[in-house]
Model the fold of this input.
Amino acid sequence: MLHLLLTTWFLLCSGGTGVQSPVSIDSPAVDQIIESAFPEDGPGCAVGIYVGGEIVYERGRGMANLEHGVPIGPETVFRVASTSKQFTASCIALLHVEGTLDLDASVRTWVPELPDFADGVTVRHLVHHTSGLRDYLTLATLAGIQHDNFDTAFVLDLLSRQRSLNFPPGSEEAYSNTNYLLLGVIVERLTGMSLRDFAANRFFGPLGMEQTHFHDDHTQLVAHRAQGYARGESGDLIVSETDLELVGDGGVFTTVRDLRQWNRAFTDGESMSEALSELMHTTGTLNDGSSIDYAFGLVLSEHRGVTLVQHGGAFAGYRAEFIRVPEFKLGVACLCNSAEADPTSLAMSILEVCLATSLSAPAPGIWEQEPERPKTIELTDEIRERFIDDYYESTLGVPMEIAASGSDMVMRINNLQFPLEVVSDDQLVTFEGPIRLDITRRGLTSGGWVVDLAVPGQGVYHFVHREIVEMTPDELREFAGEYDVPELGCMYRIWAGDAGLMIRVGSQDPVYLEVVSRDTFSSEAGGILEFRRDDGVVTGGVMHAGRVLGIELKRVGDDPLSDRVPRR
Done:
């Protein structure tokens, strides 16, 4: 969610490239980082540091199973969620290198269940998250379906119902788990083998990754498996697992010891061909020729003059990160069994220790780094008038205000306030610690100016004019009714009362809808619902929810229970 992105900063700072010495492992320093992150008697993490195919450090901290008092060790098996995507991508890349798969062929060649509008979506679009296909996990949530209750056939049926893409293929990059689930389907239909078996035969087996597999059977016994944990509503730890058997976008179980072999595959020049390794590190290109940072299940970035290759994962009570620095054949893996864990920050802190003697200067602390400050101009009444307004994020409904503060301007968002400086007539800038946030006036709609908020390392968020209105119960009842949602195969019930507007799908708990403008509401669970009218009567709407845009709702009847709404 945006409020988390705006309060949890991830620092990627630049610096010199002068290499002074090889990688050094300060074990006591790494121990201190891990011990400060996890207690001994709670969920924790396994950490592995590799140089080439050698483990130069391995450590477990915390408990793999709290009920039985089993500690985490280097041999503990973790679900690594989206970190799995690089293994799916490696299967696709191998099939291409061997001449079996054309990356620029339509995905409907192997997945004809997709609607005709997906003809222009290629395998390459799936790899780089530029397909525009809606995220199947988000679709299932919007349909009121628990993730543990469906299989590939259900997902393909759900995708076949869709009437449009989030955007034209290749025009944008937007992370979607649908892309990698379909890559797994392609591997299966092209080879006649399950993704699990193909990966085992071509990668995990030959590399000696004996405790690694795609977990496509939730009933399978897994020796040394870590239990996943999260915080319940009471604040106590609870078991957080999933019975989901879909793989491709996730589903790999592995250990920090096995990941040593994966690091070796990219460094020894023998385990993986040069052509395959090069393809795996090839990032995507959009239709306008601009490059993106997503390669084959890997994200490439620059850090202090060296290239980082990484991918994190988060699902149920598991969190994972695996970062490689090809220049030094260095890899760091952090596999955790707590939904509260932050393995990316942990891995980056460990990387700083490993690279401390390899780069020209150590990275400054997060509050010590002086960000690049652009040349600013005087704030005029005209600029103030252009920007001062109430806004909301166009797919998540997060409110933002740009307001006057004496003779200056400030941005208020999620109970945070940031002073604003003027870069140009159409651009404002603000700083929080070392982070620079840019606000750009992008265009004018019938409702007011649209502004883009750029968050380094997180992307650009689009904010539109928010009309501050107070709505009476009678006005809210205009929206009450039953709504058919064909793309989700479900019905929504919306009702109103003194407490506000509520929405429910199936037997799920109802969710409050907050007013963001006269006919637009945001959901407590995240997302925007824009109602539509015909001759002043509400006839339907369109819903946006992060990785899913443009879901149509059609009003099919009134709600006779519109007065029965729980109080807040």
